[in-house]
Amino acid sequence: MIFHIDMDAFFASCEEAVNPALKGKPLIVGGLKTDIRSIVLCPNYLARARGIKTAMPYTQALRLAPDGNFIRGTRGLYSDYSKRVREILYKYTPEVEPASIDEAYLEVSGVLHSYNNDPVKLAQVIKDDIKNTLKITCSVGISRKKVCSKIGSKQNKPDGITLVPFGKEKEFLAPLPVQRIPGVGKKTLVKLQKYGVVTIGDLLKFDVSFFENEIGVYSSYLYRVACGEDDREVHSESSGIQKSLSKENTFYEDTNDMDFLKSELYSLLEKACARLRRHKITGKTLTVKVKYSDFTIGQKSFTRTRFSNVEMDFYEDALVLMKTLLSKGRKIRLLGVKFNELLDEDGAVQENLFYDEEKMNTVVRNLDKIRKKYNFDIIKFGKNFEEK
After folding, report:
1. Domain that holds residue 117
2. Catalytic residue ranges
3. What is the pLDDT at residue 238?
4. pTM, to two decimals
5. Domain end: 166, 183, 216, which one?
6. Are strands 42-43 and 245-255 parallel, antiparallel or unpaired?
7. Cα-Cα-Cα-Cα dihedral of 22, 26, 29, 35, to 10°?
């Protein structure tokens, strides 16, 4: 029995929770009215009723809701609320798999007996707890298949519950628009519509080879979804090592200011490595990612000979990668780092004779304790400051 928890207009809801004066009018998170080069990060439901959507250019959003509240995102607010939501979810089941900052899967079959084996009752209890505690809402999809639960959570937004009838997943999905399938974007949708595929049920007019030969993406994935098939299990954070960990930041304006970007790069490494340490895992492959002003993406990776979760170990190599990506002076709007090849922290790792590993580990762990007690930015290394 799988729940998909999907927070409603998450960024906007968090802003309204900490500042109730924002309620009652269209709220657009992404920038001020003067930030005309911005895009919409998250509109509340009053803004959505005006036709405003995520990733819409600000100039268009301003035309649709000139009377709306336009604000920049509050740094740290959404990750804090995400953590608090997760703490609530863990009160009801240990099987929680975060899918993004505002989504999570829950395996609840082991705890349903406490709620008269009624999944809707448990979903309502969880929703009420989140709403009463944090003043934000979520929608819940319930089924025995992950993909059906995710699709179902969108069905009765906001603040709704959707139970996909057991054994009737195929029938439930059939009339829904095909773009409700996770991963079906604009390009894939155009290809599907070319063949008359409008609803998920229309996918069953073709066999698997059609998707492999004509669509060229997802192979048999689309066909399996249309059949209501999905054998993926919920993998909780405690059930094993995650495959990757990333951190990125989108800037309010495009830049190639190297002093600023050096500071941002180190800050991203700090936060990513702090998360590695929190989960007691290490990594050795790091990817630096940039999004240029024309929205194209560049990435470069390197692999160290040793595993680590200390930011100082990665910074110099990461800096070389970033400079390579910016070698032509192109401006960027986003900078990110991603760790792959993760290993349990207690895995056997050869020590470096020329590096005081224990001393550095002590330093970063003391930093983690201070930041946990106060806030992350209470203490910084010199590399976090732009050179003058």
Report:
1. 2-9+76-166
2. 103
3. 56
4. 0.64
5. 166
6. unpaired
7. -110
